[in-house]
Design goal:
three-stranded antiparallel beta sheet, Rossmann fold, 7 helices, 28% strand, single chain, globular, alpha/beta
Amino acid sequence: MIELRNVTKVYKTSMGPNVVLDDLSFVIPPRTSIGIIGRNGAGKSTLMRLIGGAEQPTAGHIIRQGKVSWPIGFAGGFSGSLTGEENCRFVARVYGQDVDWVVEQAREFAEIGNYFFEPVRTYSSGMRARVAFGLSMAIDFDMYLVDEVTAVGDKLFRQKCKAAFTARRERAGLIMVSHETATLAEYCQRGAVLDAGKLRVYDTVAEATAAYEEKLSA
């Protein structure tokens, strides 16, 4: 379960404070999948980083019950000087997992060949995302955070991503942000629209999509 209580995120800029998230309060129950839609710059990735703990809110509180993944697709936590294998070993130790098993599962899932044993700084953004995705799938989380990663790779890899989430749907929740509303409809039960710092949650992705398209045409 994830609960946000009066969460606000403000960044200081040369033009003054930029309020990205404004007093958000909502609850995502266990084993619930929700897709979040919003314009570029609406704060979707910021929201994911806050939920995952990579950043802290300016005000308010985030309550996490269970193990929450980092934002999959956001591989900024990788050390560029370490190889993909070494990064996976480090993360496996942090989460108290079987290190060798996690490394092998991540390597097989990422499908980047011998680059897995090269420094991450030599990777393309897509390769980083593949390793981040493979690593996250090797660890059992109660809530998975997904930031556009399903757009990575070819059709077969995207099908592999979908199958991995389908297998986890009965025991884990999912929060996904994407520009592709069709992708959200494939993966998620509920939908939400992030706009002007506010988040409105809908019972279905279709309802959220309709509301979002109405805002775009306004």
